[in-house]
Amino acid sequence: MEKAREFLSLKKEEKEGVSQLNIIPHRVGRLTFFDGFFLRGIRVDRIEPGFISCTLKVPPRLTDATGNLSSGAIAYLVDMIGGYGITTDGLPVKVTLNIAITYLSNAKANDELEITSTTSGHKGAISGVSVLVRNKTTGELIATCQGAFFGKHPSKF
After folding, report:
1. Structurally, how many domains does the chain consist of?
2. Helix segments in the chain, DSSP class H
3. Which of 24, 49, 131, 146 is most buried, by CB atoms within 10 Å?
4. In terms of residue numbers, what domain contains 101?
5. pLDDT, tens only, 86-129
């Protein structure tokens, strides 16, 4: 245990570097670093109640060592777009409860992707979504996602 603690502890010069970081707390309604990093360049093409369609040209910053869109980037994108899909029904942003992603093929840097989110329904404080990520040029399905989100909303649902 002591070896692990020693290995994980910061060295003197690392402590000095960390102490100089200017960390700005997250404010509700403002994008975080990760939101900006992943969502910069995404374009909303169509919004309807229960549906949102976006386009993203895969930037090199979201690719892995093999040049493919990383699975983590896909997970973040489907989670965010799935959550935004719920807001098209006039509901506030919710917290992700469960997300199941099926990765079907790869996307490369500069591929243009279409990401669509369709709200499956609402039951109490739970909402369900289905998200598809496909290559806009070839029509090839890159990933599918089923997600459940939780959050308070008006009683009309």
Report:
1. 1
2. 2-8, 12-19, 33-39, 71-87
3. 131
4. 45-157
5. 888 888 777 888 999 999 999 999 999 999 999 999 888 889 99
